[in-house]
Description:
Blueprint (H helix, E strand, L loop, with lengths): L8 H7 L4 H9 L3 E7 L7 E7 L13 E8 L4 E8 L2 H13 L3 E8 L2 E7 L3 E7 L9 E7 H6 L3
Antiparallel strand pairs: 1-2, 2-3, 3-4, 4-8, 5-6, 6-7, 7-8
Amino acid sequence: FLSAQNVxxxxxxxxxxxxxxxxxxxxxxLAWHFYxxxxxxxxxxxxxxxxxxxxxxxxxxxxxxxxxxxYYSEIQSAMALSIMLQDKELYDNYVAxxxxxxxxxxxxxxxxxxxxxVYKNRSYFVKVTIPPNLEGNNSYKFLFADKSxxxxxxx
Length: 155
């Protein structure tokens, strides 16, 4: 039984400041499949996208439930990682892991029809986006970055 729960919050935090090659290798070992990349421009961070357990995923055609995006900026020397999921149980599990890792809620506000919460601990920030429902493409999103990268990468 494969589950996107095979990536813990601790692993996502660790991957958030690794190189793209290291991220791809570690995620591949966990049944995450690379499917799309974009180059960095002056206005947009570069990214590499991975989907869980769908080796031949096609954007706009295939339907996935779990996605990881690795963001990087050579211009800003910054990187971050996000995971999107449509699973309330996994969302609850990740929030519990944040609490176990001594993350504290720093702020919360409405943003684009969602609730956005920012958690932090000594080393990292986690931005959590909560949709009003899970219809269509609405997903929970967790953005992981260390403190210096989070301030640069307001994604």
